[in-house]
Amino acid sequence: TVPALAEPAPVVRAPRGPQRTAKGWIQEAAKRMLMNNLDPEVAEHPETLVVYGGRGKAARNWPAFHKIVETLDRLENDETLLIQSGKPVAVLKTSEWAPRVLLANSNLVPHWANWETFDKLDQAGLMMYGQMTAGSWIYIGTQGILQGTYETFAGAARKHFGGSLKGTITVTAGLGGMGGAQPLAVKLAGGVSITIEIDPTRIQKRLETRYLDEVAASLEDAIARAEAYKAAGEARSIGVQGNAAQLVPQLVAMNWTPDLITDQTSAHDPMWGYIPVLTPDEDAALLREAHPEQYRARAYEAMAAHVRAILDLQRRGAVAFDYGNNLRHRAQEAGVENAFDYPGFVPAFIRDSFCEGRGPFRWVALSGDPEDIRATDRALLDLFPDDERLQSWLTYAAEQIAFQGLPARICWLGYKERDRAAKLFNEMVADGRLRAPIVIGRDHLDAGSVASPYRETEAMKDGSDAVSDWALLNFGVGIASGAAWMSFHHGGGVGLGFSQHSGLVALADGTPEAAARLSRCLVNDPGMGVIRHADAGYDLALDVARDRGLDLPSLEI
Ligand code: NAD
After folding, report:
1. Interface predicted TM-score (ipTM) of this complex, two decimals
2. The Urocanase N-terminal domain covers which part of the protein (predicted)?
């Protein structure tokens, strides 16, 4: 079953329906989710196992992928499969309550936690980059980030524009796996957007999946269209092909200022993620291969120009924020001393949600039947009738979101909410309202699962930004509480050396055992967000901890 190296990459699509070939539903779920990550509808570059986020992969190589699938099919219900950076390395006898899979991706001892070391190991076939949900098998396509991106732009709207982005223009860049959610998220928040993207195939993909409305022929054309929509108060998204390192400075030169400016190119990875400014006869891939040092230097130079222009636009009145790709730090390394003059999106707009344990809760229908997701949408609308943000998001999502791969949904839920949703899903599987089990997971970008000083834990109240004990505790808590599979990664969205984070996936298969597992792990996991922020001294988290019954000895709660 392991293909010879010369064989072409297989086209992967997860099995659907209520029959399984694995010995338990958790193993079947892990297998289907791994496969779903690599479905051409879901992954950005499935042929190289790259799911999203620069080179975030689901398995180290094709032989490793086949071995994982084979092993999951034979894995007993009291065994655990270990995955080391995308390669299945052992099956251990554990217990029925243990996770069926434990994954560790891209982790390096801190002194060596840099791209140079990683690249050598990657090239030697010893590691892979796991990003967040790529290497932990819970990526669900661009929808996965859409809700989080919407939360961010809605947060910006609340803070700066009276609650709506209507009548505003946002400029950003990057239409990749994650960045592709930006145009639709801005639109959902009521605004107009211009998104700069270097790769025309990415623009095309976002048009086809309805994340982007239209393409402009030039930057001037994009601005003219955006101004017309802004004047009409119409929410609309415009793409424009080009290099952000050229077009954002061009905005400055044209003396035109948007209302909001941000960026989601893959700046976290200077060698593979950010395209330097090229002459018409240059090709990024060829330059990278032939002259890697020159490539890196030019990528840094371009990121510096990009950030200088963002700072100029900020000085002129644009609301500028970093969108979690480490662009500011790259520019600072390239000499832009004041790169951090604009804030990251978490301290700017998201931290209050994290204090309540609110974060991205996602679920996937293993039946493959969109009707199962529709049923869960209706059930959650009934379960949380007073949550206005959830009501408007789910209503919109049910009508407008095109599924990619297995039908899936995402919404943000907090501490003592996620377990209620999960319990309900488990009951719906048990009584046949859903045709097959539901996988429940989340991004690693969550309230209590990540240490990332330039993103999720930027500017913590007590200065504990770089403390990664919390992420490790989250990993341990998930294992102790009944997760189906758990992962611990390094690097994620901000790159090597800048973050450590943990991922949790659980399963609702309708059994009492699943109910018990869900009731613990989906309380404790978001609980870690409340705990982490209460410990850092946030009043909101302290209130939530008191009101919702957490036991925090050092705080006498
Ligand atoms: P991706 O690699 O799939 O897409 C990046 C896109 O940027 C590509 O389409 C690429 O062509 C384009 N690009 C690169 N250089 C460019 C340039 N100079 N000008 C214009 N376009 C350029 O990555 P993704 O999954 O979309 O993620 C984007 C970034 O956002 C990553 O750094 C990721 O880690 C980060 N991220 C942030 C969050 C968050 O905090 N909200 C969440 C996930 C990912």
Report:
1. 0.97
2. 12-138
